[in-house]
Fold:
Amino acid sequence: MADSNMATPTAGAEQRRPLAGAGSSHLGERGIKLFLALCAAFSILVTTGIVIALVVPTVSFFGQITFSEFLFGTVWQPAFANPSFGVLPIVVGTMIVVVTALAVSVPIGLASAIYLSEYASQRVRKVIKPALEVLEGIPTVAIGLFAFFFMRPIAESLFPFFPWDTPFSIGIAGVAVGLLIVPLVASVAEDAMRSVPGGLREGAYALGASKMRVTLRVVFPAAISGIIAGVVLGTSRAIGETMVVLIAAGAGNPNLTFNWFSSAQTMTAYIGGTATGDIPQGTVVYDTIFAVGTLLFSMTLVMNIIATRLVRRFREVYE
Structure:
C-alpha cells in the first residue's frame, strides 16, 4: 500500500514532464512573432516616411497657393509665365480613367471569377488561374504601347464618326487600364467565391435551385466582402497607374474635358512627366508635384476607408 502511494507522485511527474523539443518550439514561435512585429513596424515607418515626404513640401505649396484655387480652379498651368494652379482638370482626367477602367474590368473580372469558381473543371482552372496571375505581371509600359499603337488605330478605324482629335485618347487609356486590372479583380474575386462553404451550395441544390441561381443568389452574396476587396484593389491600381495613361492619354497641356476621345492628363501622368529632375527644388512648380501626390494619397485613403467599412458591414463569417 505504501509502495503504491509512493509511486503516484512519480507517475504524475512523468505525466507533467514537458515534451521533447518544446522549449525550442517556443523559442521558434517567439522568433517568428518578433520577426512579424518588426515587419509590421517597418511598414508603419515606411508609410510614415512617405507621408512626411509628401506633407512637408505640400505645406510649403499651400503657403503660397490657397486651397480654393488649388481644389476648384479649372486651369492647370503651373509652369507657364502666368501660372495657374487649378488641379480640377487632372482630377477629372484621373476619374475618367478610373471609371472607364472599372466599367471594363469589373464585368469581365467578375464573369471570369464566376466561371473559374463555379463552372470550370479542375483541369481548366489549373491552366487559366495561373495564366491570370501571370498576366498581372505584364509591364505597364507594354500595355501603354499596345494601347497607343494597336487599340487607338483600331478604335478609330471601327468608329470613324467619333471625334478623334489627336493620336491620344483618355478613353482608350481607361480601357487599357481596365484590361490591366482584370486579372487582379478576377483572381481576388475567384478566391473569395471558392472560400464559400460547399454546404451552402449543397443546401441550395437540395431545394431545387439551378446552378446560375445558386451562383448569383447564394455564392455571390456570401463572397461579397472579398469581391468588394478585389474591386477596391483594382480601383487603387487604376488610380495609381502612370505609364499607360502617360503613353496612351498624352502628356501635353491638361484640359478640363469630359471628351472620351481627346487627350487629357491625369494626376499620376503629371507627376511622372514633371518629376524629371529639371525643376529646381524649392520652387512652387516643384512643390506642385508633392501637392498633387498628397491629394492622390488622400483620395486613395478615403476610398480604402469606405471600402473597409463596406467589407465589415457585409462580411460573412462561417464556423
